Amino acid sequence: EQAGVHVVYGMVGLKTHCKLALVIRQEAGQLVRYCHIGTGNYNPKTARVYEDFGLLTSREEVGEDLTKLFNHLSGYAPEAKFKTLLVSPVGVREGLTELIDQEIGHHAAGKKSGIDIKVNALVDEGIIDSLYRASRAGVPVRVLVRGMCALKPGVKGLSENIRVRSILGRYLEHSRVFRFEGGGDSKIYIGSADMMHRNLDRRVEVLVRLIEPEHIDRTQTMFSLAMADDVAGWDLDPDGKWIRKQFDSSGVALGDFQDAVMHSITARQVS
Fold first, then answer.
1. What is the pLDDT of residues 62-82, one digit of tens each?
2. What are the boundaries of each domain within the chain?
3. Which of 102, 179, 199, 269 has the most beta carbons within 10 angstroms of its beta carbon?
4. Per the residue annotation, which of 17, 72, 107, 174 is the catalytic one?
5. Annotated catalytic residue 107
6. How far, in whole angstroms, is CA 72 from its chain's centroid?
């Protein structure tokens, strides 16, 4: 405050857990908004060991939404409706449930369907019930979770179309990704929200939709790599037990997901 910075403490009773930055510049006589929405904290220490995603964009719709959200958090504006964001404690659970229901509809109509979720924890009953409903309807569901998971995959008549994996390695898997096949028009969201009561009911969390084909392809590729049978990881069985997969049937070590991701990122930077 002494340096001229206006410090705002957010909404009373809610922890602001979303990771957002908004820079407004005047360029060529007009205002341009640069937005960053991430899955990880703005922390130089954890950034060295946490795996996270972030979207840096000047999309006008995202800029408008972030402006509304910052004004709401600072008390300058009432609760707003957003075009590109899902915002808790009101919109994340409801928005994801609606997207899950849409996948059920796509499957019933004979269109492409599928749900991919990557989170740190999955314990919210509402989201879990929706995923069970999707599985019973025939929608394939893949979950990549680092920590607590109350969902049981592979249970006959309940979750036969659900697979759950966990990747533990050199870096702490921290990003949250939500992908919906969308009948052939994929919808992917990234953001700060885990599927827990505290995140969905008692925190300000934000998910943003990715629309650039390169961002969508890169995210889908990384998720599929993590779920691949030739990549090491931990698989959750119907009894709630984690089964470690390190070697193939011939005793050969399976691939390392994080090494593969680091190699691809390094190669992209060099090129």
1. 999 999 999 998 877 777 899
2. 15-87, 92-270
3. 199
4. 17
5. no
6. 23
